[in-house]
Amino acid sequence: MPTEKKAQLIDKLQDLFAKSGVGIFADYRGMTVAELTDLRRNLRKSGVHFHVVKNTLARIAAEKAGKKDLGSLFEGPMAVAFSTGEATIPAKVLNDLVRTGKTALKIKGGFLGDKLLRTADVQALAMLPPREIIIAQIVAGIQSPIAALVAYLSSPMSGLVGMLQARMKQLEGK
After folding, report:
1. What stretch of H or E contains 3?
2. Across the strands, what pairs with 49?
3. Residues 6+ away with beta carbon under 8 Å from 149
4. What is the pLDDT of the chain when averaged over all its residues?
5. Nearest to 74 by CA among 23, 9, 12, 1
6. Is the predicted pLDDT of residue 116 greater than 60, yes or no?
7. Tell me: the pLDDT tens digits for 57-96?
8. Strand, helix or coil at 56?
9. 48 three-class SS
10. With contact defined as beta carbons under 8 Å apart, do 83 and 114 qualify?
11. Of 97, 98, 93, 71, which is closest to residue 83 (Cα–Cα)?
12. What residues contact 27, with CB distance under 8 A and at least 6 apart?
């Protein structure tokens, strides 16, 4: 039977699991307190919550939040980066930290909505451009055929206008 303090912690974690669109699980073994503090500071600037969690309590909270598939990730010392905003931000920050080799942090996996992410999925998520750039690329892709059609349809009219202007200059010259 969990104590009142553990029950409150489970409720807090359940709320984070339920409200967060993305969560990245990491093994923090080998990191110093200063490195963890710096990591938390960097993540907090981006609107990401970073929590060191007890596996049993986190597993209970995840199950209560409807994320039962996450049970396989709760092994060893665990920290979770939760984000309710941009899905790529926690993945980018943690992946950059791992890639530079400045820390002993290891990404174990995560979740995106209700989908379980493996380490390779988190790395792929980190390589995605920001949301605004993806939207701009989609809009450009939609706009390109329309702009080409407008240019194609206006081309005969432009030719006619050019021919009429040339004829006007020719008549003025006489």
Report:
1. none
2. 82
3. none
4. 84
5. 23
6. yes
7. 888 888 888 887 777 788 888 888 888 888 788 888 888 8
8. helix
9. strand
10. no
11. 93
12. 76, 77, 78, 79, 105, 106, 108
Mean pLDDT computed over 126-147: 85
pLDDT at 103 over 80: no
d(CA 137, CA 9): 42
* Whether the Cβ atoms of residue 51 and residue 4 lie closer than 8 Å to each other: no
Residue 95 and residue 76: Cα distance in Å, rounded? 19
How big is the CA angle at 31 (ends 78 and 28), to the nearest 5 degrees?
15
pLDDT (0 to 100) of residue 79? 87
Tokens 């379980």 correspond to 116
CA–centroid distance for 57 within its chain: 26
Q: For 33-67, how does the pLDDT look when each residue is reduced to its tens digit (9 = 90+)?
A: 888 888 888 888 888 888 888 888 888 888 888 88
Residues 50, 52, 53, CA angle at the centre, nearest 5°?
Answer: 120
Looking up tokens 């996450």 gives 70
Spatial neighbors of 64 by CB under 8 A, at least 6 apart, are: 10, 14, 17
Structure confidence at residue 1 (pLDDT)? 47
Q: In this structure, are residues 135 and 69 in contact, taking their beta carbons and an 8 Å threshold?
A: no
